[in-house]
Amino acid sequence: MFGGKDKSKKSTTSSSSASASSSGLNTLVEGTVIEGTVTAKSDIRIDGIIRGNLNCTGKVIIGETGFIEGQVNCQNAVIQGKFEGTLSVEELLNVRQTAKINGEISTGKLIVESGAVFNVTCQMGKQATSNGKATTDRKQTQVKRLQKEAV
């Protein structure tokens, strides 16, 4: 009844649960305040307050009670609460109707729902690259097009 078969099942279960937890969701609950730099290798939900930098290789979710003041770098973001600072999103930034955002944004794609407060300087798409090459290439293409039109 308590033989080797049960032990092997138990070890399999614990190794799979360890894998699941490593790709889980980090949560900063309401009432918690962090000052400094936060690094997350998986998705993170903020319902509390971060004053400082947040670096995340996954998705950042700022809940309705959440507030971040500082710099955020992430893959994707959903903002329902407040953000002030510099936000760099590689793929998709989704700004919900309850969001209040002030600062500088660079993102691949952007969704802003009606009702959101969105007071930002925003760069989207290839223009958001840090080396400026995409912006330069785009300007050169526009100049060539204008030259052709002039002829």
Question: What is the CA-CA span between the terminal residues?
Answer: 89 Å
Counting helices, strands and paired strands, the structural category is: alpha/beta
Shape: globular
Helicity range of the residues?
10-25%
Secondary-structure element string: HEEEEEEEEEEH
- The helix count comes to 2
Most strands sheet: 10 strands, parallel
Supply Rg.
Answer: 21 Å
Mean pLDDT across the residues is 80
Beta fraction? over 45%
Number of strands: 10
Low-confidence stretches: 6-22, 128-151
Description:
The chain is of the alpha/beta class and 151 residues long. It has a domain at 24-125. The protein has 2 helices and 10 strands; from the N terminus they run αββββββββββα. Strands 1, 2, 3, 4, 5, 6, 7, 8, 9 and 10 form a 10-stranded parallel beta sheet that branches. The chain starts with a helix and ends with a helix. Residues 6-22 and 128-151 have low confidence and may be disordered.
Task: Name the descriptors.
single chain, 151 residues, alpha/beta
Helices, strands, pairings?
Elements: H1 4-22, E1 26-28, E2 33-40, E3 44-46, E4 49-56, E5 59-62, E6 67-74, E7 76-79, E8 82-95, E9 100-112, E10 117-124, H2 133-150
Parallel strand pairs: 1-3, 2-4, 3-5, 4-6, 5-7, 6-8, 7-8, 8-9, 9-10
